[in-house]
Design a protein that fits this description.
Elements (H helix, E strand, L loop, with lengths): L3 E5 L4 E6 L11 H16 L5 E6 L20 H20 L4 E5 L3 E2 L1 H8 L2 E5 L5 E3 L13 H9 L1 H10 L2 E3 H7 L4 E3 L4 H7 L1 H10 L12 H7 L1 H19 L5 H15 L1 H15 L3 H18 L12 E4 L3 H12 L4 E4 L3 H20 L5 H9 L1 E4 L10 E4 L5 H11 L8 E4 L6 H5 L8 E6 L8 E6 L5 H13 L3 E6 L6 H17 L4 H11 L5 H8 L1 H15 L8 H8 L22 H5 L26 H21 L6 H12 L8 H8 L1 H15 L7 H9 L7
Parallel strand pairs: 2-3, 3-4, 4-6, 5-7, 6-9, 10-11, 10-13, 11-12, 13-14, 14-15, 16-17
Antiparallel strand pairs: 1-2, 7-8, 15-16
Helix pairs in contact: 1-2, 2-12, 4-5, 4-11, 5-11, 9-10, 10-11, 11-12, 14-15, 15-16, 20-23, 20-26, 21-26, 22-23, 26-29, 29-30
Length: 723
């Protein structure tokens, strides 16, 4: 099967259609590279060609990136280095063609696809919502190695290009046009015809500008970096410090990207391309990239699973609760195109929820993710109400009220009076077992858990909790709905805390125990950020809410009591004294300090460096603190969470390690470069993890006793991802 087809019209325009007939997505594979080499030889021999167009033969994507499945077979660094040189050589030949070469983009143009577009002299992109342009290789622990770091830097300048590559951001076409990544933004209709009609315009531009290189004006930052060596050295040294402070050496691709960009500004394209090839061939074999790629494969597989035959169509969604979670769920539902009914007990609460929805949509509009018309269209799909009778046509009702069992049972019984018999009731509880809520229902088979994570529009995970009585069609309908809302869905069995809250509770309770042992709040948080978590446990407690965490710990305590899991009394004492975290500006950190009380807190912008609220120490042994061994802190907090994940697999709460890894990374921020709890255990080995847990159990208690499944795997020398 061919992936490239070329045709030449009477005006001398060669059109290369990119269409991998064996896949729904175009990927830059070894087969496509081989065909591109053949096509280029033919183009270079044909002197009648006056222009060249690259366009996708698929309706919804250009090229989504390199086929990373081919990397899984990579074991020879030299062979990988040579393969990268081949791709770089082809893109260099495209760049040197003496006539207009245009990439006409509709749909995702990412990674290798973006590098191909950058090798073209001009780029046209459609304003379709699915059109995204970027270099996301860093999310796989890699760097753009087909000239991406070089050509984007030449096009935009280091000041604009570097953040895009380091963060792996994908931009909409209007946003890309505003910074110069794209030359024209057009309507998706007749993209090929539009591109051909633009050829005279691009031909005229070629007479005044050779190649894609943008010569920076004086005295811009890019001009300074290219012409003043001391300024360049200082700029990249400071950038290296910022990267190290943020990544703590856990993401080796980041300093390599910086080095490649610096080489482009210092010694030009050939030197930069060589540094790309050298860095890529080394990074692709690194354990960090292997873990990130395994996570990508697992997440992609979940998104691509076909809907089961039991799933029913959902036309309308109801939301009970207009608070932060309810508004977030309403936002993603409306964004997916569904009408949404949102109920709360008062118009005042509803107005706050609608304000949250509008604020999010308008922020997306300012970031050019939506235009004003689309923003208004999405917002109009949310209908506020205080009357249950408006839910009569809802297919799924999602409850997002406060974490209180009696309240959840009450709203379930109230809504059942007004909805149709086949309407699904989904609770957004994070810890209360669904079976307890369903016991109040006339139709317990239609009750299920849909645990979203805050902030809902940004967090990619949805945890669906099923009970033994949940009907198959209910489970499949909710899973299908979650995917429609753009979430990665894992299905777990019912139980206190399900999977994510249960392993998070073990982690947070151990952090509170460390506080009882006179640990310093900032030291514990710093240790876990260096381990790879986005924030430390006490910062997370403030964000989640100390009240929510205390409630969840009560739900899970009975389950873990036989393993010596008991929440420190200080946690509940904090709650009794109205310490709720960021929501009321009283937590483990200060959030409303006056300048005359704490000037440093006001001046520091980083949340991690915010001043500790020393009042919290009074509930955990007093203000006198001790400096603990940070290696001990990291071992205790990481291994207790991982051990609990193994218990969940052993008990059938999660059905496989991949679900457990995706849930921990996407839902809780477990370090992605470690691949998740189970992938990380495979890296250190079951035997080594067992020994470390046994040592911790001897020192700190039987809550660290390794799970029987882990002990059995250590004896049999097994791993979770065999082969």
């Amino acid at each position: 099967m061919r992936t490239l087809q070329m045709e030449i019209d009477g005006a001398g325009t060669a059109v290369i259609r990119i269409d991998d007939e064996g896949d729904t997505l175009n990927k830059l594979s070894s087969v496509m590279i081989s065909e591109l080499e053949e096509v280029l030889r033919e183009i270079e021999r044909d002197h009648a060609i006056r222009s060249l167009l690259f366009i996708s033969g698929k309706e919804d994507n250009f090229i989504v990136g390199v086929d990373i499945r081919e990397f899984e077979e990579a074991s020879d660094r030299t062979a990988m280095h040579e393969s990268i040189h081949v791709i770089q050589g082809l893109f260099n030949r495209i760049e040197r063609l003496p006539y207009p070469v245009i990439a006409a983009v509709n749909g995702p143009c990412l990674g290798g696809g973006m590098e191909l577009a950058l090798a073209c002299r001009f780029r046209i992109a459609t304003d379709h919502d699915r059109t995204l342009l970027g270099l996301p290789e860093v999310k796989l622990g890699l760097i753009p190695a087909a000239g991406g770091t070089q050509r984007l830097t030449r096009l935009l300048g280091a000041g604009r290009a570097l953040p895009l590559i380091l963060e792996g951001r994908a931009l909409s076409a209007p946003h890309a046009r505003s910074i110069g990544m794209v030359d024209l933004v057009v309507h998706p209709y007749d993209l090929l015809g539009t591109a051909k009609r633009c050829l005279p315009y691009f031909g005229q531009r070629m007479k005044t500008r050779q190649g894609t290189r943008r010569y920076p004006p004086f005295p811009s930052l890019d001009w300074v970096l290219r012409h003043l060596k001391p300024a360049r050295k200082y700029y990249f040294a400071q950038a290296a410090k910022r990267i190290d402070a943020k990544a703590h050496g856990n993401y080796p691709a980041l300093p390599e990207i910086l080095r490649c960009v610096e080489n482009e500004t210092t010694c030009g394209l050939p030197c930069g391309l060589e540094s790309e090839a050298e860095a890529f061939s080394r990074l692709v074999l690194s354990p960090e990239s292997e873990a990130l790629r395994s996570l990508f494969f697992a997440t992609t597989a979940m998104k691509r699973k076909p809907s089961t035959p039991f799933a029913r169509q959902v036309q309308r969604v109801g939301i009970l609760g207009g608070g932060l979670m309810g508004a977030g769920i309403a936002t993603v539902a409306a964004r997916s195109g569904m009408p949404v009914i949102m109920r709360d007990v008062s118009l005042y609460n509803l107005s706050r929820g609608l304000k949250d929805i509008w604020t999010h949509l308008d922020r997306q509009r300012r970031r050019q993710k939506h235009n004003p018309v689309e923003r208004d269209r999405i917002f109009s799909r949310v209908v506020p109400t205080t009357d249950y009778r408006d839910f009569s046509s809802a297919d799924v009702v999602i409850e997002a009220v406060f974490e209180d069992l009696s309240l959840k049972r009450q709203v379930l019984q109230e809504i059942e009076e007004f909805v149709k018999p086949e309407c699904i009731f989904a609770s957004n509880t994070s810890a209360i077992p669904i079976s307890r809520i369903a016991s109040a229902s006339r139709r317990p088979e239609t009750v299920i858990g849909m645990h979203y994570f805050s902030p809902v529009p940004r967090m990619p995970l949805l945890e669906v909790a099923v009970t033994p009585r949940t009907a198959e069609w209910v489970r499949d309908t909710v899973v299908s709905l979650g995917r429609r809302l753009g979430k990665t869905v894992i299905v777990v069995q019912d139980g206190p805390g399900f999977y994510t809250t249960r392993i998070l509770a073990a982690y947070l309770l151990e952090a509170a125990t460390l506080l009882n042992e006179l640990a310093e709040i900032h030291q514990v948080d710093r240790a876990m950020v260096q381990f790879g978590f986005p924030v430390g446990p006490f910062k997370l407690l403030d964000e989640v809410g100390i009240d929510v965490a205390a409630h969840a710990s009560r739900e899970i305590h009975e389950l873990m009591a036989d393993r010596d899991f008991s929440p420190p009394t200080g946690l509940h004492e904090l709650l009794r004294n109205d310490f709720r975290g960021r929501k009321n500006e009283r937590g483990f950190y200060r959030y409303a300090a006056h300048w005359w009380q704490d000037v440093g807190t006001v001046l520091k912008k980083s949340g991690e460096r915010r001043a500790v609220n020393e009042e919290a120490y009074a509930y955990f042994g007093g203000k006198k603190r001790e400096v603990l061994d940070e290696a001990d802190i990291r071992d205790r907090l990481s291994l207790i969470m991982i051990n609990e994940a193994i218990y969940c697999l052993q008990e059938g709460i999660v059905s496989n390690p991949a679900d457990g890894d995706v849930g921990a990374v996407l839902g809780l921020g477990f370090p992605p470069f470690l691949g998740g709890p189970f992938r990380y255990l495979d890296r250190i080995g079951a035997a080594e993890a067992t020994v470390r847990l046994e040592r911790l159990a001897e020192r700190f208690g039987k809550r660290f006793a390794p799970a029987p499944l882990l002990v059995d795997m250590a004896m049999k020398e097994e791993s979770f991802y065999s082969g």
